[in-house]
Amino acid sequence: MYQKKMAQDIRCPLEYGLDIFGGKWKPRIICVLNEKRVLRYSGIRKEMTNITDAVLAAALKELIEDGLVERKSYDEIPPRVEYNLTKKGDSVVPILQSICAWSGIFRRSDQDPVLAQCERCDYNASSAK
Q: Is 87 exposed, middle or buried (0-12, 13-18, 19+ CB in 10 A)?
């Protein structure tokens, strides 16, 4: 597994937030789990577009380590594992919705269509315009 050569030097609360829930995939995972509430790995994978299994597994692991996502495994045959947002994860959703509202105002209309989970988000794109 990749390990950074230098220790993180986070001095700003914004840097901390972006490290915890920023990037390309973490916000999407949070939005999918916010909409669906509880999903198995295959369900998350099905909702995501253009993500590899390795990247999804790594992002889920980071979200779990940072306390945004809970992984619950059941002692069953076959084994069953479910993922859901924690209270800390739920608290990120309004922040992401604010970013969506801002993007709805300034996003170019000729860009790719909105992802399915974004269309079902509590954010209403028409109210921002």
A: exposed
Query: Which residue in this structure is represented by tokens 């921002």?
Result: 128
Angstrom distance (rounded) from CA 126 to CA 61: 35
CA–CA separation, 39 and 41 (whole Å): 7
Q: pLDDT for 100-119, tens place per residue?
A: 888 878 876 666 666 665 66
* CB-neighbour burial class of residue 85 (10 A; exposed 0-12, middle 13-18, buried 19+): buried
pLDDT tens digits, one per residue of 64-106: 999 999 999 999 999 999 999 999 999 999 999 999 888 878 8
